[in-house]
Model the fold of this input.
Amino acid sequence: GVEALRRRGDRFQTARSPAGMLGYLTPRTRVGQPLGGLLQDGDLLIAAAPVISFFFLIWGVFDWFLANHIWNRLLAARALVVVVNAGIVLWASKTRHPSRGQLGFWLWLLVWSIGISSMIPFVSEGFNAYVVGLSIALIGAGILPYWSFRWSSSLVLACAATASLGAYFASPSTGELLTFIFVILTTSTVSV
Done:
């Protein structure tokens, strides 16, 4: 078992390095970067974008229940986010340069956060439900791509800033505002 894998030094890394524990099962080019190799190729972004975009549009059903009077505008905003993000995915997939994949993911998640944040002022009765949507965007920023603290923290700060603007214009009650602050701070901390 293990000795046979060690003898295949040309294809697999041994356990001598810290990342080498994965080396018995992982090709050398991907050791130490469980998702990094996928992110470099843009595969993870290309795979995640359609699935998450689908659910982002489906959540328009909640708009119907939470803000029936402006449901069509909120659905249009969701569709705009999906279209802009499709453009980002296409742009990021044009090259295999690793930083373009990371920047594409960063922009993609930021646009998603901006889209949700822009809905908050118009759905005062559903304020907390949209905060949950923002939390999902922040969690996605922390767990989807495999990137450095600098990339994830800058994205989480940018998303939290857009969320704060949305909350400011929504004029929530004190309880809703405290819940918003607690949820966004907790989610941001966990995501980074």
